[in-house]
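Same chain as my last thread, 343 residues:
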Amino acid sequence: MAPSCCFSDGERIFSDADEHIKVFETTVADYGLNMAKCCFLVSDNCEVNRSISRKTKIPLIGCASHRFNLACKAKYARYEENLEKCNEVMKKLRTNKNRAILRKHTTLAPKRRQDTRWSGTYNMIDRFVDIADAIKTAVNEDNLNLSKTQVIGDVNVEVDIMLSDKELRELKNLRNEMSPFQEVTAMLQDADQNVMNLLSVRKIFDKIIEDDQTASQYLSPRASIVESPDFENAIVKVMKGDALNATEARLMKKFEVKKVAKPANTQKSFCDFDDDSKYINLTWIPATSNACERLFSRAKIIFNDYRHVEILLFLKLNRDLWGMDDVHTIFNDRMSNKSSQKA
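reply #2:
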């Protein structure tokens, strides 16, 4: 589960953790269960989710993608001035007039920055570096306008926003430096959760910290952002076969094997244990809440004022009864009705 809802007035953070807990309790009760059966939560590391974990005393596994995103943002913070300037150029290039001019010199379209994901910043840098020569050509040959009006004193002055050669070199270096991080992001976003478990993530994060100590602020096993470090460490140790300390052993009690006699040739389930293991197989525990985030994104598209789930489901289940000709006919009929009404 991936609860996420925070509000702030700029000075204090207000969370509705209690309301979330009530929803959880009501939901699991519908299935004849209670919160005591919940082994852990998986979500990003925002304050409301950490509060839920503390109030329910259920360990929280912080989303690895969220932690990695914060580490990447911290890494490129020193380039923020250049990145903001690059975003301004991209924004300017996305106007209809400028895109038409740029299209004469490259088939690649400009991309703006996405603040919610660091990969959006990387994609902007990557695209800008690729089309930088085309932009310069368009400026020189087609008078592409890359300036903005800035008030200096009481005078409006047109200021060129195109990056200098030095700033472009810095962005190229940043792209090369962040390319491995982009690969890690793609791995974390992989829908195959059997690949990216807590042990896999720990190995990746340890390697990143080995190469860059500043990343330990968010990626180390006991970073301040980690709400339940003993629980996460215990899972990793069990998967590696390492010995647990007393605290970790207590947290893993719920995962201990309750051995019972099984008929011969019984097929194992995905969470079955090896005969010599004290704990069940924990590789199924997800390291990220990406699956929930994808679900929320799809739900947001469907449940709004413009798209109704009932209509979509009806059309999907009866796909063999309609085609693009029907869509075209309905569209033309509606346009004709609008024209007649105006007349």
